[in-house]
Design brief:
Blueprint: H1 15-22, E1 28-33, H2 39-46, E2 50-57, H3 60-70, E3 76-80, E4 95-101, H4 103-112, H5 114-117, E5 122-127, H6 131-140, E6 143-153, E7 156-165, H7 173-178, H8 180-185, H9 188-205, H10 213-228
Parallel strand pairs: 1-2, 1-4, 2-3, 4-5
Antiparallel strand pairs: 5-7, 6-7
């Protein structure tokens, strides 16, 4: 007879989620877009960081999970919303968190609800890819990147981009690709990421014919990585 073992998922704040939560200013009124289990909203309220949090998701399933986890925690409202579309003026939200999505989707959410963004003071974004597009988009809508947190969490690399209102632009394309502040700070996780990327490019170059378009592109990227490191 085959035995089946069911393992209940443990909900906890990962290193990445803790960094996101701690990027919120004290007393902020926050909208957590794509809240899933509601881990960040509950942490923000229980640790007296935010004064109010909207836990938002487009799907009812995640909202139900969030409702169960959050329970009767005060100053959290659970609301179905497609991105920022159901955020109201009277909510007085000043900070938006969008994490765990692709960069193109995050850009789409921010672009679609641009009128809402005009009243937001702080964006905390953690795109899973296309980070360069996010950085360029933020600059195009007059948000300056005031901090970036590059971390390794459970064997994966993550970037958290924190932006506030202001005019800013980067001089070089690689600063958009890897993050001006990540390059400036060069923390251990970022160094490891760059080293792994270098090794991957070197292995690909060995399989390519020299002086082809792809070969030259990767060779140029390798030179940029060497300068960063």
């Amino acid at each position: 007879m085959q035995l089946l073992f069911f393992i209940k998922k443990v909900r906890y704040m990962t290193k990445r989620l803790l960094e996101i939560a701690n990027a919120v200013n004290k007393g902020a009124r926050v909208a957590d877009i794509g809240t899933d289990h509601g881990l960040v909203p509950k942490y923000l309220i229980e640790n007296d960081i935010a004064s109010f949090v909207l836990a938002c998701d487009i799907n009812l399933g995640p909202l139900q999970r969030a409702r169960q986890y959050i329970g009767d925690t005060k100053n959290i409202e659970i609301r179905q919303s497609n991105g920022l579309s159901n955020i109201k003026m009277e909510d007085n939200i000043d900070t938006v968190i969008i994490a765990g999505m692709g960069g193109h989707l995050i850009k789409e959410i921010l672009s679609r609800d641009f009128n809402t963004i005009k009243f937001i003071n702080r964006l905390i974004l953690s795109p899973q890819n296309a980070q360069n597009n996010i950085r360029k988009f933020l600059h195009s809508i007059d948000f300056k990147i005031v901090d970036e947190i590059f971390i390794k969490d459970m064997s994966k690399f993550y970037v958290i981009i924190i932006a506030e209102r202001g005019v800013q632009s980067y001089t070089n394309e690689y600063e958009y690709e890897y993050g001006f502040l990540n390059i400036k700070t060069l923390n251990m996780d970022f160094r490891e990421f760059i080293s792994q990327k270098q090794s991957a490019i070197i292995n690909i170059l060995k399989q390519l014919e020299p002086n082809t378009t792809r070969y030259n592109e990767l060779q140029n990227e390798l030179e940029v990585l060497k300068c960063i490191q």
